[in-house]
Write a structure and sequence with these properties.
The longest helix has 17 residues, at 2-18. The chain is 21% helix and 36% strand. It is α+β, with helices and mostly antiparallel strands and 195 residues long. A hairpin with a 4-residue loop joins strand 7 (158-171) and strand 8. The protein has two domains: 1-40, no CATH class; 44-194, no CATH class. Strands 1, 3, 4, 6, 7 and 8 form a six-stranded mixed sheet that branches. It has a three-stranded antiparallel sheet with strand order 2-9-5, with no helix packed on it.
Amino acid sequence: MKHILFISYAICTFTLAACSNEIIPSDKQGDNAQLYWMEEDTSVIFVNSIEDLCKDLTISNYENPFLSTKANVIIQTVKGYDELSYKYKDSKMSFGANLAAIIGVDPYVVYIVDEYLLTKRISMSDGYAIPLESPKCGFLPTGKNNELGYSATVINGNFEMTTITINVKYNTSGQTLNIWSPRQNSQIEWIYGSL
């Protein structure tokens, strides 16, 4: 009797140990399935929007204290950047469907990505500067609605504009992609108004 009881106990223990309550990602639908799967590999950053990429940035936005008419504003366009820093460098990222479509990559695939913070400084020694829409800039650092543009602030007499770009360098198979979004750093244009 003890022998049968022991065998029954062993079979139950083996059966329970072999069972798993893990959900296979393909059994779930949409971004949540991929997010569940990505959580298994903590080295992969799952990004569903530009806002996800920007969530821990602390960039303030400059508000011009002087009101003026449009007639007083001279529209200025400058190219390039004065400072480049990495928010992410050689990071494993996977993108949700909407953001993947914006960037031009396949969703839910792991890529090696660099995210850049670009800053352009304009001296305000001769007047004042105001932020204007910049459709040929990077992503707005607030990340809201995947908008293009920049955040601006005044530091030490300089009007500083900051924007974000992404370079999807290659996939985990080693295939070089070099996909820039929204554009390469060298193609960034900043538009601002001077008074």
